[in-house]
Amino acid sequence: MPLNDLQIKKLRATDKQLKKADGGGLYLEINPKGSKLWRMAYRFGGKQKLLSFGKYPEVSLAKAREKRLEAKILIADGVDPQVKKNEERKQAIAETQNTFSNLKNELIEKKVKEGRAASTITKIKWCFSLVEDALGHRAVAEIKSPEVLDALRVIEAKGNYETAHRVRGLIGEVFRYAIATGRADYDPTFALKGALIAVPVTHRAAVTDWKAFEELLKAVWSYEGASPATRAALKLMAILYPRPGELRLSRWNEFDLEKGVWEIPKERTKMRRPHQKPLPPLAISILKELHEWSGDCELAFRSDIGRAKPISENTMNQALRRIGYSSTEMVSHGFRASASTLLNESGKWDADAIEAELAHVGSDEIRRAYHRGKYWEERIRMSNWWAEEIAGMVK
């Protein structure tokens, strides 16, 4: 006999679980603690199954009957209502938890644990902030290519074409991470190849012939402006040709001036592997002189602004501007191209030894080990020769 609201209200809990049927598989379960729960028993695929519709009175008798009817319609259509309910629950979770914003945060946290530099993490966060309003709230599984393109078009509209390409790459990383963790099925950025405005490839400005390089060195060594850290940094960029961030963020404990070795930690290298560089006598003498100015600090190239801040790459570039080199003629990173070109042109050194010194290594583990092991002695000789050439040009 079907239930009615008055009857349900009069039902009282006992020390045993009670079941009151409404018909069609629907019944009210009264637990010893007093809760009243709607259930529906049904068969699907030859198996006995059970649906839960919620708690009375939050789910009324009329609402429970509506749910029963919906379930029976699904069964008649060959759909298991329990499976459909689970799918809807997963979809709800995806919409609230597996959003682009949450997946993006997980990816950033992964990069932090992998040792990415703080400056890199800051840049990544900034790039993601450009599409947060458009994509952040969306479930990653629902985001399609046109939606991503629309978000990138906003960046392009401001003339920031290179940034748009960078953001597209980062969005792609989020989706590949989502695919790997089972929260998305495809990467919508793959279809966007060629859809963004192309960015012309530009190489960093650098001096790459001996005569012009000699003129640059003389200008650097005669420069008396800026701080001791900036002057020393420019000289060491020429002698050691590291990446600017590797040098300006260096700590004194990385330099072994007795052994003549600089140990660059993996957190600051592009390949996220520690890198050793031999220190020729000229570099050691510059570092010793710098130590008299900043030796009481952790940072070797501390800023004039504060002891806890390093000089910036812009500081080095501005110094180059002051000695007469425009941004199209020379930048701090250009010392790497200068050294690479001139060392190769000299014909004195194995090309692989030069690549190893520049920390240009491939993905093959054996080849990396080969670079580090076989070429170390040659790299020491090469560093000394390079420094002596520089010393001769700045006399």
TrEMBL record:
Give residue ranges for domain Tyr recombinase.
Answer: 203-383
Which keywords annotate this record?
A: Coiled coil, DNA integration, DNA recombination, DNA-binding
Q: Which PANTHER family match?
A: PROPHAGE INTEGRASE (PTHR30629), PROPHAGE INTEGRASE INTS-RELATED (PTHR30629:SF2)
One GO biological-process annotation of the entry reads: DNA recombination
Coiled-coil positions are 86-113
Q: Which family does it belong to?
A: Belongs to the 'phage' integrase family.
Provide the protein name.
Integrase family protein
Keyword presence, DNA-binding? yes
Q: Taxonomic classification, please?
A: Bacteria, Pseudomonadati, Pseudomonadota, Alphaproteobacteria, Hyphomonadales
Molecular-function annotations in GO:
DNA binding
State if Coiled coil is listed as a keyword: yes
